Amino acid sequence: MTQHLILLPIVNQLLVAVLLMFFYGKVKTQRVLSVAGSVLNLIIAGLVLQRVASHGFLTLQAGNWQAPFGITFIADHFAALMVLLTAISGLAVSFFSTKTIHVKRVKFGFFPIFHFLLSGLNGAFLTGDIFNLYVWFEVMIISSFVLLTLGARKQQLEGAVKYFTLNLLASVIFLTAIGVLYGITGTLNMADLALKVPQVENRGLVHVTAILFFIGFGIKSAVFPLYFWLPASYHTPPAAVSAIFGGLLTKVGVYALVRMFTLIFTDDLFLQRMILGVAVMTIFSGALGALVKNDMRKIFSYLIICHIGFMIGGLGMMTETALVGAVFYLIHDIVVKTNLFMVAGMVKKVTGKQDTRVMGGLYSTHPLIALLAAVPLFSLVGFPPLSGFWPKLELFRAALTDGFYTTFAFLLFGSFITLFVVAKMWKRVFWGEIITPLKQGFTLFDDETPQRKLMFLLPIVFLACVSLYIGLGANHVWQLSQTIAGELMDPQPYIEAVFETLNSAEYEN
Amino acid sequence: MKSVILKTASDYLLPLLLLFSVFILLRGHYLPGGGFVGGLIASIAFILYAFSNGLAKTKTLLRMHPGFLMPVGLMMALLSGLAPLFITGQPFMTGLWFPDPAPVIGMIGSALFFDIGVYLVVVGVSLTIIFTISENA
Question: CA B106, B109, B112: angle at the middle one, nearest 5?
């Protein structure tokens, strides 16, 4: 049964989604089922990572079709870790949605779609086949489109049109790239591609394909210059939805980029310089955007873009230290960004507002919430010893030791702007005069029962604890990141793991 | 739509089209056809019936909300994918087949159950969409 473990994160989410569909319209059952499914998923994800850490890579040939022909599923440390992070964020958001998602939205199938989205995410992390990766991206896009438009307010639809158009365009480019790649190598298996792409003589064509992939994944992970769909849409849906979007959806793009450019399109100075250039511009434009916005969730949206630049920059530098930094940043960013969007939802629940200019005094009225919000906010900035500090340190070190001085300057610039933006937000929202909350058609936080108050805060506390662990127990996370970076720098074991099942795959009855 | 010709024809076409959809579903493994096309043909049968006899009558004919077919079909497809794990210990989605063909139906295996799942999902989705549109029109 051990090799089947790898599929459990996907199958479990699918199963939960289908079960939820049986209880269509039954709000209470759906809430319980969703949280229970997410807890189970967290356990499974933990088991997968533990298994990978103790016994090496997990591989599975779906349908028993052997490696270059069938669909391979492979869990190395990177994939297993991403599945675990998805499970952590998924659990927090699932719990958060039970209290914050309106009954009407639940009746229109919020929870099944949410779990379909998570199964798409898990699939994208675990697959070892590039066309299958495309399919999982489609599962995610369609689910995310439903989540984004559910409720059909005018503002939501406006954001969704931009979101959907650009993401669909990205999918078409991605699919075209797969077609070209299949044309020149005759295979879709990622390990097989890693062997065959370096042998292709027409390097120009390989470059074009690589750039097509970069554009496709780049749009999905919101890098410069095609990032504008993100701030246009992420502030429109309910807080729980933007939390899962902000925490995970763009990071899948980053994951796919890291996979592609460490496994298939490797050792190419031109591509690395291009990635680095784009990363620098992404940091710059994201930071500038965050400076001028006032809506809390819009600020976070621009900060997502800015910090995507950090990770892509780590990929562009392509040294082991830089990859450690990028992977560590990814770990920190998923947890913190998910939490920040939930904090934004919490602040809206307390004040009835989203615009930071008209808020104030939360620190004196709700000191505990302020303290809670401080953890993700200052982790984001990277106050030592909170979680943002360590990956930034690693990235700076990578940039300085290998002479990427321009990148270093931009990384520093991005960090300082983040600090400035967060400080400004802190001053506006938590300090200053106490401003009376605005009634806006939902029960304000102060009017809720103590038990419900606790339910609102619990997922935020949970994620804050996780990011505190990443910061204070940085040694563990750093070691894990280093293992991952080592695996990424040397893809040979990955390739062998995929083809090894060829010989030992005699599943006799 | 009140047309005697359509009404008379649809009474005969409903069973005929349903039979045809099952035929398409069964031949689908090696030949053109399968769950998706079969499901579409089956839903066309019901839509034609709804055109001539009205929505309310079609719903009583179906006895349940077509949306219910979606999770049933999905569950069936998922379980047929999981079946090899429990029966032979082979990987997800491995095809399992009975050694001898059954009369009329032909070879029976996990792929057939997957296809039936697809068939149900397609019927459920397309009927839900059409019914919702015509209710709101």
Answer: 80
Separation between Cα atoms, residue B117 and residue A502, nearest integer Å: 31
Q: Are A117 and A90 in contact (CB under 8 A)?
A: no
Structure tokens at A111: 């929870």
- Quickly list DSSP for A59-116: EEEGGG--TTTS-EEEE-HHHHHHHHHHHHHHHHHHHHHHHHS-HHHHHTTHHHHHHH
Contact between residue A478 and residue A328 where contact means Cβ atoms under 8 Å apart: yes
> Rounded to a whole number, what is the largest CA-CA distance in chain A?
73
Beta-carbon separation of B91 and A507 below 8 A:
yes
**B94 to A63: CB separation less than 8 angstroms, yes or no:** yes
CB atoms within 10 A of CB B63: 6
Domain ranges of chain B: 4-136
Distance from CA of A173 to the nearest CA of B (A): 27
The pTM (predicted TM-score) of the whole model is 0.94
Q: Which residues of A touch B86 (CB under 8 A)?
A: none
Distance CA A350, CA A344 (A): 10
Among the residue ranges A225-239, A269-283, A495-509, B37-51, the one predicted with the least confidence is A495-509
Do A4 and B71 make contact, defined as CB atoms within 8 angstroms?
Answer: no
> Which ipTM did the prediction report?
0.91
